[in-house]
Amino acid sequence: MMIHFALLREWGEKINLTALSDPQEIAVLHYLDSLAVFKVLPVTEGMSVLDIGSGAGFPGLVIKIANENIKLTLLDRDAKKIVFLKYAASVLQLREIRFLNISVQTLTENPDRPAYDVIVSRAFSLRSEWMTPLGMILNPRGMLVRMAGPASRKEDLSLPGFELENMWEGHLPFSSHFRRIILYRKIDPS
Questions:
Q1: How large a percentage of the chain has pLDDT more than 90?
Q2: Which end of the chain, N or C, is more open, meaning fewer C-beta atoms within 10 Å of its C-beta?
Q3: Cis peptide before 59 (omega within 30 of 0)
């Protein structure tokens, strides 16, 4: 992760990858936050993960660095961020990563769209109207990881077509930053 951090700092001088500049804030609010996904996600060998709105690689690339056995797809509409992600993955010698420079809507409307075991995102709003399209790109009983902050309310946790399976909430290490990580499982329509 130190190599990714160095690349983030270097490339951040050319393109907007993060608003944060303090190394400790970056470590906590990006890296530790991304790793918090493992508090709820049961990782299996060869699991396919789609990171929507990957940006600088949070959480997807960090998850891949921590567990190289996942098959990762990084999706971002910003071509410059995809170029950064491809370069970082190459430098880190990470394999089994796909890069999509499209919108999530374009992906969900593609009749030849792949299906994923897990969808995760920090940058994408999980509004109710997105649940049906996202369900179409998840395998049966696939999982959705929602990373919510302090503004999220427990009453608003239900998502149509999904059941809440696991949740972790607390403060990120070395900070007072509250995070709620929710794991949903796609409801089998049969």
A1: 68
A2: C
A3: yes
